[in-house]
Design a protein that fits this description.
alpha+beta; seven-stranded mixed β-sheet; six-stranded mixed β-sheet; metal ion binding; NUDIX_hydrolase_dom; NAD
Length: 750
């Protein structure tokens, strides 16, 4: 029987490129009232008119009223939603800028080095007034619910108004940048406070106290995520500019002093000081001002804010089901993100993607697959993040082998360097660090002997995650498939219990095609592959990672980051908290049960060139959700217990949405027999549309969550031994924080 395989969670639906982002603040428009509907003869709940650009901008604004043109940036990344009309053509017009600064509605943004002055945001009025005395109670309640605004930002900037009342601050500031006009035409400027002296710090604290309302100085980067996107973008630009002005007091070529231009977006050589008045020396001669003439540059020097471009990329496996994420040692526990890095001089963006992934993860990238996704300014202090999607090169390709060799050499050199700096480093510790190339402390290590029951030693020979030896000599793109992916014992077990060839390819093919990261710990603490199904499950879980077995405290950067957009675009869903925050809990946003439509469509070229398996999965998921997705693919406990490998399948014909299947790995310390696990799976399958379960063998599992280690071994007296390599691959999919070397397979023992 030919069966269409379907992984849990399926392939994410790709949102139309022209569609609006589903994960953004929604503009609620109240329905018409009963009286208005009756007067016009229309339905009480007639479709609301499309929101104007001004209304969209108002819905996305924070403390700074956004101009209508800002509505076009509503779908852009967080720091790209600049709320002002920059009016860059006015930056050289000093008299005009002075007039704007003197206006009573001019706003001034104070800055203290890289800090901004913010206060807790005032909660918006969520009470919606109904129009029309004849509105019914139902219409009134519907109107109030529809008009409820999205959750407000936690912080808002302190804006000094009128700006001219604080002209004394400008005198000690290196610049007075003009930032633009808001929706009401009010001009915005920035000013830097001196923070390099006790007097300057005291002045800054006095300004915060004068602002009141709990105002305090916070780092612009830390405060940004708690601000509205427009406010955060504005403060980030102002902060980045002021940091640049403070660090560019002198010209790089001449060494002479530099001053800000009127608009504050460039600096130029300071005019030479006037010559001193003539004075007679002892002989009555007037000396020439030689020192002043020597200090004045022959040609005026100009400087502009430097922008450091960086690439940030989501690299996936060849089939698209796995994504490469990493973490730095100083990040919060179990925080993972996309890889990123700065460009080298003269380097194209696409080449930088491949180089950074090779340096940080030891994974070769298929350069033609690198596709632009989005960009975002990251002015902390002066970066531009350019986002890309890309795919890893085949594991058997020469590029992958060369990259892995170079990465292993770099990792070994890093270990030797650290060992030379630490006299207390033991030889055993050096050998362990150099041996597996993984980041210390993340995988959990070997964990020592089990306190429950010692499992048999892992089978010698090829590991479950290693490709067959013959695949290395095949042409690029050609792979060994089917039962040849299994070693001899696993192949015999699979044939005995009736595993399908397609099931072996779906479970093991993608894993064995992965390039396993070789991490240079000077760059990253850990880099590993995560499966889309697992990421989607964590995002959808009501309690997040804390409610998912083996997920630790897994988390990704917040919606303010480009990494968030790349990860959620690939996963096809949003974390529950992020979906609620972005959409205000709106039922019309596509968010339900903690998921939402992806905020960034995958490029057509990326999906069109994917392998046939991914295309088939996408076509299958387009038919709608499958009841089998509600049944967990991996369900195990802790300690040592029996497990079964089973096939969950839909007996209906494909024309009625059937013909789908997936493998299950279920084990429970409370189950005395393998058949108890099978019956439990059958009962659950029957409740979901009459699905069927076929057992495919069994064995035992020893699971040590503290050591993050799983051993799969033994056999079932009733059903025979399962092909444990398939079980190990599925366990690795659903326990990605466990190192692959800590998931072992053996056919010995019972």
């Amino acid at each position: 029987m030919q069966m269409a395989l379907r992984r849990l969670g399926g392939h994410p639906r790709v949102a139309p490129a022209s569609g609006r982002c589903g994960a953004r603040r929604m503009l609620a428009v109240p329905p018409v009232t009963a009286s208005a509907a009756n007067a016009s003869g229309a339905s009480m709940y007639a479709p609301a008119a499309a929101a104007s650009p001004a209304e969209v901008a108002a819905a996305l604004s924070g403390a700074v009223p956004a101009v209508p043109a800002a509505a076009e940036s509503a779908d852009l990344p967080f720091y790209s939603q600049y709320p002002l009309d920059r009016k860059s053509e006015w930056r050289r017009d000093g008299p005009r800028l002075n007039e704007l600064f003197a206006r009573p509605d001019a706003k001034l943004i104070p800055l203290l080095r890289d800090k901004v002055l913010v206060r807790p945001a005032v909660a918006a009025d969520t009470t919606a007034a109904t129009t029309g005395a004849a509105a019914t109670a139902d219409a009134a309640s519907a109107t109030a619910a529809a008009a409820a605004p999205p959750p407000p930002a936690l912080l808002q900037p302190v804006l000094l108004c009128p700006a001219s009342a604080h002209a004394d601050l400008v005198g000690s500031s290196p610049a007075r940048p003009f930032l633009g006009l808001d929706a009401h035409g009010a001009p915005y400027f920035a000013v830097g406070l001196p923070g390099d002296s006790p007097a300057g710090l005291a002045e800054a604290e006095a300004l915060a106290a004068e602002a009141g309302g709990g105002a305090e100085w916070r780092g612009a980067r830390l405060a940004g995520p708690d601000l509205a996107p427009g406010d955060a973008s504005l403060l980030a630009v102002a902060s980045g500019l002021m940091v640049w002005h403070n660090s560019t007091g002198f010209g790089a070529a001449s060494g002479g002093p530099m001053v800000s231009t009127p608009g504050g977006f460039s600096r130029k050589s300071a005019p030479p000081p006037p010559p001193p008045p003539p004075s007679a020396d002892g002989n009555g001669a007037a000396p020439a001002p030689a020192a002043a003439a020597a200090a004045a540059p022959s040609r005026p020097e100009s400087a502009y804010p430097r922008i450091d471009p960086a690439v940030i990329m989501l690299i996936t496996s060849r089939c698209g089901g796995w994504a490469l994420l990493g973490r730095k040692r100083e990040w919060p526990t179990d925080r993972y993100s996309t890889l990123a890095g700065f460009l080298d001089l003269g380097e194209p963006l696409e080449a930088a993607v491949a180089r950074e992934v090779a340096e940080e993860a030891g994974v070769a990238v298929d350069l033609p697959s690198v596709t632009y996704a989005a960009s975002q300014p990251w002015p902390f202090p002066r970066s531009l993040m350019v986002g890309f999607f890309g795919r890893a090169a085949p594991a058997a390709s020469p590029a992958a082998a060369a990259t892995a060799t170079a990465a292993a050499a770099a990792a070994a050199a890093s270990v030797r360097k650290r060992a030379s700096k630490s006299a207390g480093t033991s030889a055993a510790g050096d050998a362990n660090a150099a041996g597996d190339g993984s980041a210390g402390g993340t995988g959990g290590g070997g964990g020592g002997e089990s306190t429950v029951m010692a499992a048999p030693a892992a089978s010698k020979g090829r590991a479950w995650w290693q490709a067959p030896p013959g695949s290395a000599g095949l042409p690029e793109g050609a792979v060994v498939g089917g039962f040849d992916l299994l070693p001899a014992q696993g192949r015999r077990a699979a044939l005995d219990v009736g595993v399908f060839r397609e099931e072996v390819e779906e479970v093991l093919g993608g894993v064995q095609a992965l390039q396993w990261p070789v991490v240079d710990e000077d760059e990253m603490e850990d880099v590993r592959w995560f499966h889309r199904d697992w990421v989607r499950a964590v995002f959808a879980a009501p309690g997040g990672a804390l409610s998912v077995s083996g997920a630790g405290k897994f988390n990704v950067p917040g919606p303010y980051s480009l990494a968030f957009r790349l990860i959620t675009a690939w996963a096809g869903s949003l974390p529950g908290e992020a979906a609620s925050k972005l959409d205000g809990g709106s039922g019309g946003s596509g968010c339900s049960s903690g998921t939402a439509t992806m905020p960034l469509p995958l490029p057509a070229s990326f999906t069109a060139s994917a392998p046939t398996q991914a295309a088939a999965a996408a076509a299958a998921s387009a038919d709608g959700e499958w009841e089998g997705d509600r049944i967990p693919q991996v369900l195990i406990g802790e300690g040592t217990f029996k497990y079964v490998l089973a096939r969950l399948w839909d007996p209906r014909p494909e024309s009625e949405g059937g013909g789908r299947s997936k493998l299950l790995v279920w084990g429970d310390p409370r189950a005395p027999y393998h058949n108890d696990l099978l019956q439990k799976a059958k009962q659950m399958a029957q409740r979901y549309g009459g699905l069927k379960v076929t057992v495919l063998g069994g064995g035992r599992i020893r699971h040590d969550p503290q050591a993050r280690a799983i051993d799969v071994y033994g056999y079932s007296a009733a059903f025979g031994p399962a092909p444990h390599e398939l079980a190990a691959a599925l366990l690795a999919r659903w326990y990605p924080l466990y190192d692959k070397d800590n998931i072992t397979v053996s056919y010995e023992g019972y």
